[in-house]
Amino acid sequence: MINKIKEKTEQYFPDTQAIRHHIHSHPELSFQEYETAAFISGKLSDMGIEHQTGVAGTGIVALIKGKNPGKKCIALRADMDALPIQEANDVAYRSQNDGVMHACGHDVHSTCLLGAARILNELKDEFEGTIKLIFQPGEEKHPGGASLMIAAGVLEHPKPEAIFALHVYPHLPSGTAGFRAGQYMASADEIYITIEGKGGHAALPHQTIDPIAIAAQVITALQQVISRKSNPLIPSVLTFGKIAGGFATNVIPDRVEILGTFRTMDETWRYEAHKWIKDITEQVCTSFGATAMVEIPKGYPSLYNDPHVTTQAESWARDFIGAQNIHTLDLRMAAEDFSFYTHHAPGCFFRIGTSKNGEAFTAPVHNAKFDIDEEALKTGVGLMVWTAVNALKA
Ligand code: NI
Predict the structure, then answer these.
(1) Same domain, yes or no, for 277 and 387?
(2) I want to staple 293 with a disulfide (CB 3.0 to 4.6 A). Which of 194, 299, 303, 377 is the partner?
(3) 146 C-alpha to center of ligand 1: Å?
(4) Both 263 and 310 in a single domain?
Protein backbone atom coordinates (compact mmCIF):
# COMPACT_ATOMS: atom_id res chain seq x y z
CA MET A 1 0.00 0.00 0.00
CA ILE A 2 2.81 2.45 0.89
CA ASN A 3 4.42 1.97 -2.51
CA LYS A 4 1.11 2.39 -4.30
CA ILE A 5 0.47 5.67 -2.45
CA LYS A 6 3.99 6.93 -3.16
CA GLU A 7 3.71 6.05 -6.86
CA LYS A 8 0.42 7.90 -7.20
CA THR A 9 1.77 10.88 -5.25
CA GLU A 10 4.72 11.10 -7.67
CA GLN A 11 2.53 10.54 -10.73
CA TYR A 12 0.09 13.32 -9.77
CA PHE A 13 2.76 15.72 -8.49
CA PRO A 14 2.54 18.12 -11.51
CA ASP A 15 -1.25 18.36 -10.99
CA THR A 16 -0.76 18.90 -7.27
CA GLN A 17 1.71 21.72 -7.95
CA ALA A 18 -0.70 23.30 -10.44
CA ILE A 19 -3.51 23.21 -7.86
CA ARG A 20 -1.27 24.83 -5.27
CA HIS A 21 -0.19 27.54 -7.72
CA HIS A 22 -3.80 28.31 -8.56
CA ILE A 23 -4.92 28.56 -4.93
CA HIS A 24 -1.79 30.47 -3.93
CA SER A 25 -2.22 33.06 -6.66
CA HIS A 26 -5.90 33.60 -5.80
CA PRO A 27 -5.89 34.11 -2.03
CA GLU A 28 -9.00 35.24 -0.18
CA LEU A 29 -9.45 36.60 3.32
CA SER A 30 -11.19 34.72 6.14
CA PHE A 31 -14.87 33.91 5.49
CA GLN A 32 -14.60 35.25 1.92
CA GLU A 33 -13.17 32.08 0.36
CA TYR A 34 -15.79 32.01 -2.45
CA GLU A 35 -13.46 31.45 -5.42
CA THR A 36 -11.30 29.04 -3.46
CA ALA A 37 -14.33 26.99 -2.42
CA ALA A 38 -15.70 27.00 -5.98
CA PHE A 39 -12.32 25.80 -7.26
CA ILE A 40 -12.13 23.01 -4.67
CA SER A 41 -15.74 21.99 -5.33
CA GLY A 42 -14.97 21.84 -9.07
CA LYS A 43 -12.01 19.54 -8.45
CA LEU A 44 -14.07 17.27 -6.18
CA SER A 45 -16.80 17.10 -8.84
CA ASP A 46 -14.20 16.22 -11.50
CA MET A 47 -13.15 13.31 -9.27
CA GLY A 48 -16.76 12.27 -8.77
CA ILE A 49 -16.59 12.79 -5.00
CA GLU A 50 -19.92 13.62 -3.35
CA HIS A 51 -19.74 16.81 -1.33
CA GLN A 52 -21.76 19.60 0.20
CA THR A 53 -20.84 23.25 -0.34
CA GLY A 54 -21.90 26.37 1.54
CA VAL A 55 -21.36 24.80 4.97
CA ALA A 56 -20.90 27.63 7.51
CA GLY A 57 -20.58 30.04 4.58
CA THR A 58 -17.83 28.82 2.27
CA GLY A 59 -17.03 25.46 3.89
CA ILE A 60 -17.12 22.12 2.06
CA VAL A 61 -17.66 18.63 3.44
CA ALA A 62 -16.96 15.63 1.21
CA LEU A 63 -17.34 11.90 1.81
CA ILE A 64 -15.26 9.11 0.31
CA LYS A 65 -16.93 5.81 1.02
CA GLY A 66 -14.91 2.62 1.01
CA LYS A 67 -16.30 -0.88 1.33
CA ASN A 68 -18.68 -1.26 4.26
CA PRO A 69 -18.95 2.55 4.62
CA GLY A 70 -20.89 2.39 7.90
CA LYS A 71 -18.07 0.59 9.69
CA LYS A 72 -16.03 3.59 10.82
CA CYS A 73 -15.56 7.23 9.89
CA ILE A 74 -12.45 9.35 10.24
CA ALA A 75 -12.00 12.98 9.16
CA LEU A 76 -9.26 14.99 7.47
CA ARG A 77 -9.36 18.77 7.68
CA ALA A 78 -7.83 21.66 5.73
CA ASP A 79 -8.29 25.42 6.08
CA MET A 80 -8.70 27.72 3.06
CA ASP A 81 -8.23 31.34 4.13
CA ALA A 82 -5.34 33.76 3.49
CA LEU A 83 -3.97 36.78 5.38
CA PRO A 84 -4.03 40.57 4.82
CA ILE A 85 -0.36 40.67 3.80
CA GLN A 86 1.20 41.96 0.56
CA GLU A 87 3.23 39.09 -0.91
CA ALA A 88 6.92 39.93 -1.36
CA ASN A 89 7.87 36.78 -3.29
CA ASP A 90 8.77 37.17 -6.95
CA VAL A 91 7.41 33.87 -8.29
CA ALA A 92 5.17 32.99 -11.21
CA TYR A 93 2.40 31.92 -8.84
CA ARG A 94 2.57 35.01 -6.62
CA SER A 95 -0.65 36.47 -5.25
CA GLN A 96 -2.77 38.27 -7.82
CA ASN A 97 -4.92 39.83 -5.10
CA ASP A 98 -3.34 43.00 -3.78
CA GLY A 99 -2.76 42.96 -0.05
CA VAL A 100 -3.86 39.33 0.38
CA MET A 101 -1.48 36.41 0.64
CA HIS A 102 -1.39 32.73 1.57
CA ALA A 103 1.30 33.44 4.16
CA CYS A 104 0.22 30.68 6.55
CA GLY A 105 0.27 27.87 4.00
CA HIS A 106 -3.46 27.23 3.95
CA ASP A 107 -3.10 26.93 0.15
CA VAL A 108 -0.78 24.01 0.87
CA HIS A 109 -3.22 22.44 3.33
CA SER A 110 -6.12 22.62 0.85
CA THR A 111 -3.89 21.30 -1.94
CA CYS A 112 -2.70 18.35 0.14
CA LEU A 113 -6.28 17.46 1.07
CA LEU A 114 -7.39 17.63 -2.58
CA GLY A 115 -4.39 15.52 -3.58
CA ALA A 116 -5.24 13.01 -0.86
CA ALA A 117 -8.89 13.00 -1.96
CA ARG A 118 -7.91 11.94 -5.48
CA ILE A 119 -5.77 9.04 -4.28
CA LEU A 120 -8.17 7.90 -1.55
CA ASN A 121 -11.01 7.93 -4.06
CA GLU A 122 -8.99 5.66 -6.36
CA LEU A 123 -8.15 3.33 -3.48
CA LYS A 124 -11.65 3.17 -2.00
CA ASP A 125 -12.07 -0.53 -2.86
CA GLU A 126 -9.06 -1.23 -0.67
CA PHE A 127 -10.31 0.14 2.64
CA GLU A 128 -13.40 -0.19 4.81
CA GLY A 129 -15.25 2.79 6.20
CA THR A 130 -15.80 6.43 5.29
CA ILE A 131 -13.37 9.32 5.05
CA LYS A 132 -14.82 12.76 5.67
CA LEU A 133 -12.96 15.67 4.11
CA ILE A 134 -13.48 19.06 5.74
CA PHE A 135 -12.43 22.24 3.91
CA GLN A 136 -13.12 25.04 6.37
CA PRO A 137 -13.20 28.82 6.12
CA GLY A 138 -11.75 31.43 8.45
CA GLU A 139 -9.02 29.77 10.50
CA GLU A 140 -7.30 33.13 10.97
CA LYS A 141 -10.25 35.06 12.30
CA HIS A 142 -12.44 34.85 15.37
CA PRO A 143 -14.69 33.00 16.08
CA GLY A 144 -12.78 30.53 13.88
CA GLY A 145 -14.27 28.66 10.94
CA ALA A 146 -13.83 25.38 12.83
CA SER A 147 -16.30 26.45 15.52
CA LEU A 148 -18.85 27.37 12.85
CA MET A 149 -18.33 24.11 10.96
CA ILE A 150 -18.89 22.14 14.18
CA ALA A 151 -22.04 24.19 14.89
CA ALA A 152 -23.18 23.34 11.34
CA GLY A 153 -22.86 19.65 12.22
CA VAL A 154 -19.71 18.49 10.41
CA LEU A 155 -18.83 16.20 13.29
CA GLU A 156 -22.16 14.34 12.96
CA HIS A 157 -23.71 12.00 10.35
CA PRO A 158 -21.37 10.23 10.21
CA LYS A 159 -19.46 11.06 13.37
CA PRO A 160 -15.69 10.76 12.88
CA GLU A 161 -13.88 8.66 15.48
CA ALA A 162 -10.68 10.61 14.87
CA ILE A 163 -9.72 13.79 13.02
CA PHE A 164 -6.39 14.80 11.48
CA ALA A 165 -4.91 17.97 10.02
CA LEU A 166 -1.47 19.03 8.89
CA HIS A 167 0.20 22.44 8.94
CA VAL A 168 3.23 23.79 7.10
CA TYR A 169 6.34 24.23 9.25
CA PRO A 170 9.33 26.13 7.81
CA HIS A 171 11.51 25.24 10.80
CA LEU A 172 11.86 21.71 9.42
CA PRO A 173 13.04 20.60 5.95
CA SER A 174 10.68 19.12 3.37
CA GLY A 175 10.33 15.37 3.65
CA THR A 176 9.99 15.54 7.42
CA ALA A 177 7.05 15.71 9.81
CA GLY A 178 6.60 16.79 13.42
CA PHE A 179 4.30 15.45 16.12
CA ARG A 180 3.51 16.22 19.72
CA ALA A 181 1.11 14.13 21.79
CA GLY A 182 -0.98 15.86 24.44
CA GLN A 183 -1.10 19.61 24.93
CA TYR A 184 0.47 21.33 21.90
CA MET A 185 -0.83 24.86 21.26
CA ALA A 186 -2.32 27.55 23.49
CA SER A 187 -5.78 28.95 23.94
CA ALA A 188 -5.98 32.58 22.81
CA ASP A 189 -8.43 35.11 24.17
CA GLU A 190 -8.50 38.78 23.28
CA ILE A 191 -8.77 41.32 26.10
CA TYR A 192 -10.44 44.70 25.70
CA ILE A 193 -10.15 47.09 28.67
CA THR A 194 -11.60 50.60 28.80
CA ILE A 195 -10.67 52.77 31.78
CA GLU A 196 -13.07 55.63 32.23
CA GLY A 197 -11.72 58.52 34.30
CA LYS A 198 -12.35 62.25 34.17
CA GLY A 199 -10.37 64.50 31.87
CA GLY A 200 -9.07 67.98 32.53
CA HIS A 201 -6.06 70.28 32.55
CA ALA A 202 -2.71 68.60 33.08
CA ALA A 203 -1.80 71.27 35.60
CA LEU A 204 -4.86 70.52 37.75
CA PRO A 205 -4.65 66.72 38.27
CA HIS A 206 -6.54 66.90 41.54
CA GLN A 207 -9.65 67.95 39.61
CA THR A 208 -9.39 64.91 37.32
CA ILE A 209 -9.34 61.14 37.46
CA ASP A 210 -6.29 60.40 35.34
CA PRO A 211 -6.90 57.19 33.31
CA ILE A 212 -3.32 57.20 31.99
CA ALA A 213 -1.76 56.92 35.43
CA ILE A 214 -4.37 54.31 36.37
CA ALA A 215 -3.72 52.35 33.16
CA ALA A 216 -0.05 52.10 34.12
CA GLN A 217 -1.07 50.62 37.49
CA VAL A 218 -3.49 48.21 35.85
CA ILE A 219 -0.93 46.87 33.38
CA THR A 220 1.65 46.39 36.14
CA ALA A 221 -0.85 44.77 38.49
CA LEU A 222 -2.12 42.38 35.81
CA GLN A 223 1.33 40.87 35.34
CA GLN A 224 0.83 39.43 38.83
CA VAL A 225 -1.77 37.12 37.28
CA ILE A 226 1.14 35.46 35.47
CA SER A 227 3.85 35.79 38.13
CA ARG A 228 1.79 35.05 41.29
CA LYS A 229 -1.52 33.42 40.37
CA SER A 230 -0.53 31.09 37.53
CA ASN A 231 0.82 27.62 38.29
CA PRO A 232 4.41 27.87 37.00
CA LEU A 233 4.03 24.42 35.46
CA ILE A 234 1.28 25.69 33.13
CA PRO A 235 2.56 27.95 30.35
CA SER A 236 0.72 31.28 30.28
CA VAL A 237 1.25 34.56 28.43
CA LEU A 238 -0.40 37.92 29.04
CA THR A 239 0.61 40.57 26.49
CA PHE A 240 -0.85 44.02 25.91
CA GLY A 241 -0.30 45.06 22.32
CA LYS A 242 -2.13 48.36 22.26
CA ILE A 243 -2.70 51.23 24.65
CA ALA A 244 -4.55 54.27 23.41
CA GLY A 245 -5.62 57.47 25.12
CA GLY A 246 -4.87 61.16 25.25
CA PHE A 247 -4.12 63.94 22.80
CA ALA A 248 -1.47 66.36 24.09
CA THR A 249 1.21 67.03 26.71
CA ASN A 250 -1.10 69.19 28.77
CA VAL A 251 -4.44 67.38 28.64
CA ILE A 252 -5.59 64.54 30.86
CA PRO A 253 -8.00 62.45 28.75
CA ASP A 254 -11.31 60.93 29.84
CA ARG A 255 -10.44 57.39 28.91
CA VAL A 256 -7.75 54.91 27.99
CA GLU A 257 -8.15 51.70 26.03
CA ILE A 258 -5.88 48.72 26.52
CA LEU A 259 -5.94 45.73 24.17
CA GLY A 260 -4.18 42.46 24.79
CA THR A 261 -4.15 38.69 24.55
CA PHE A 262 -4.11 35.92 27.14
CA ARG A 263 -2.82 32.48 26.21
CA THR A 264 -2.47 29.29 28.17
CA MET A 265 -2.55 25.50 27.96
CA ASP A 266 -5.14 24.62 30.60
CA GLU A 267 -8.87 25.16 30.13
CA THR A 268 -9.68 25.45 33.88
CA TRP A 269 -6.93 27.97 34.53
CA ARG A 270 -7.94 29.83 31.37
CA TYR A 271 -11.28 30.87 32.87
CA GLU A 272 -9.84 31.46 36.36
CA ALA A 273 -7.34 33.84 34.76
CA HIS A 274 -10.12 35.70 32.96
CA LYS A 275 -11.76 36.30 36.34
CA TRP A 276 -8.50 37.55 37.88
CA ILE A 277 -7.93 39.91 34.96
CA LYS A 278 -11.44 41.35 35.36
CA ASP A 279 -11.32 41.60 39.17
CA ILE A 280 -7.86 43.16 39.39
CA THR A 281 -8.64 45.70 36.66
CA GLU A 282 -11.93 46.69 38.23
CA GLN A 283 -10.52 46.95 41.74
CA VAL A 284 -7.44 48.97 40.76
CA CYS A 285 -9.68 51.35 38.83
CA THR A 286 -12.22 51.60 41.63
CA SER A 287 -9.53 52.36 44.18
CA PHE A 288 -8.53 55.43 42.15
CA GLY A 289 -12.10 56.52 41.42
CA ALA A 290 -12.22 55.34 37.82
CA THR A 291 -14.49 52.73 36.27
CA ALA A 292 -13.37 49.80 34.17
CA MET A 293 -15.00 47.88 31.37
CA VAL A 294 -13.34 44.54 30.71
CA GLU A 295 -14.35 42.32 27.84
CA ILE A 296 -12.73 38.98 27.14
CA PRO A 297 -14.63 37.39 24.24
CA LYS A 298 -14.05 33.65 24.05
CA GLY A 299 -11.29 32.83 21.58
CA TYR A 300 -9.78 29.52 20.48
CA PRO A 301 -9.34 26.82 23.11
CA SER A 302 -5.97 25.14 23.64
CA LEU A 303 -5.05 22.43 21.16
CA TYR A 304 -4.87 18.97 22.69
CA ASN A 305 -3.50 16.19 20.53
CA ASP A 306 -5.08 12.94 21.67
CA PRO A 307 -2.11 10.90 22.97
CA HIS A 308 -3.34 7.58 21.58
CA VAL A 309 -4.28 8.84 18.12
CA THR A 310 -1.16 11.00 17.89
CA THR A 311 1.20 8.20 18.92
CA GLN A 312 -0.44 6.01 16.27
CA ALA A 313 -0.21 8.71 13.59
CA GLU A 314 3.45 9.26 14.41
CA SER A 315 4.20 5.55 14.06
CA TRP A 316 2.37 5.38 10.69
CA ALA A 317 4.38 8.41 9.55
CA ARG A 318 7.57 6.67 10.66
CA ASP A 319 6.70 3.76 8.36
CA PHE A 320 5.93 6.17 5.51
CA ILE A 321 8.85 8.66 5.61
CA GLY A 322 11.35 6.92 7.89
CA ALA A 323 12.15 7.38 11.59
CA GLN A 324 14.99 9.81 10.79
CA ASN A 325 12.42 12.22 9.31
CA ILE A 326 10.13 12.35 12.34
CA HIS A 327 10.58 15.17 14.85
CA THR A 328 9.04 15.93 18.23
CA LEU A 329 7.49 19.40 18.24
CA ASP A 330 7.95 21.95 21.03
CA LEU A 331 4.97 23.49 22.81
CA ARG A 332 3.74 26.58 21.00
CA MET A 333 1.94 29.62 22.47
CA ALA A 334 0.32 30.41 19.11
CA ALA A 335 -3.28 29.30 18.63
CA GLU A 336 -5.03 27.31 15.91
CA ASP A 337 -8.74 26.72 15.51
CA PHE A 338 -8.26 22.97 14.83
CA SER A 339 -8.37 22.96 18.65
CA PHE A 340 -12.18 23.19 18.49
CA TYR A 341 -12.33 19.78 16.81
CA THR A 342 -9.96 18.29 19.39
CA HIS A 343 -12.45 19.15 22.13
CA HIS A 344 -15.13 17.07 20.31
CA ALA A 345 -13.23 14.16 18.78
CA PRO A 346 -9.78 12.62 19.35
CA GLY A 347 -7.52 14.65 17.08
CA CYS A 348 -3.99 14.91 15.78
CA PHE A 349 -2.59 18.16 14.38
CA PHE A 350 0.85 17.53 12.93
CA ARG A 351 3.40 19.54 10.97
CA ILE A 352 5.13 18.95 7.67
CA GLY A 353 8.57 20.48 7.08
CA THR A 354 8.58 22.98 4.21
CA SER A 355 12.10 24.47 4.00
CA LYS A 356 14.74 23.25 1.57
CA ASN A 357 17.46 21.63 3.71
CA GLY A 358 16.90 24.42 6.20
CA GLU A 359 18.59 26.83 3.73
CA ALA A 360 15.86 28.08 1.42
CA PHE A 361 12.16 28.70 2.12
CA THR A 362 12.98 29.53 5.75
CA ALA A 363 10.76 32.63 6.12
CA PRO A 364 8.32 32.09 8.99
CA VAL A 365 4.55 31.86 8.50
CA HIS A 366 2.65 35.17 8.50
CA ASN A 367 5.68 36.75 6.75
CA ALA A 368 5.49 38.41 3.29
CA LYS A 369 8.34 36.14 2.11
CA PHE A 370 6.82 32.85 3.24
CA ASP A 371 6.91 30.09 0.61
CA ILE A 372 7.59 26.35 0.56
CA ASP A 373 9.83 23.79 -1.07
CA GLU A 374 7.10 22.03 -3.05
CA GLU A 375 8.67 18.62 -2.42
CA ALA A 376 6.76 19.00 0.86
CA LEU A 377 3.49 18.57 -1.08
CA LYS A 378 4.45 14.91 -1.65
CA THR A 379 4.90 14.38 2.08
CA GLY A 380 1.63 16.19 2.83
CA VAL A 381 -0.47 14.30 0.29
CA GLY A 382 1.15 10.95 1.06
CA LEU A 383 0.84 11.28 4.83
CA MET A 384 -2.81 12.34 4.62
CA VAL A 385 -3.65 9.26 2.52
CA TRP A 386 -1.58 6.85 4.60
CA THR A 387 -2.88 8.28 7.89
CA ALA A 388 -6.52 7.99 6.75
CA VAL A 389 -6.15 4.42 5.53
CA ASN A 390 -4.49 3.34 8.78
CA ALA A 391 -6.87 5.27 11.01
CA LEU A 392 -9.83 3.42 9.48
CA LYS A 393 -8.17 0.11 10.43
CA ALA A 394 -7.08 1.23 13.91
NI1 NI B 1 -2.24 28.49 9.75
Answers:
(1) no
(2) 194
(3) 12
(4) no
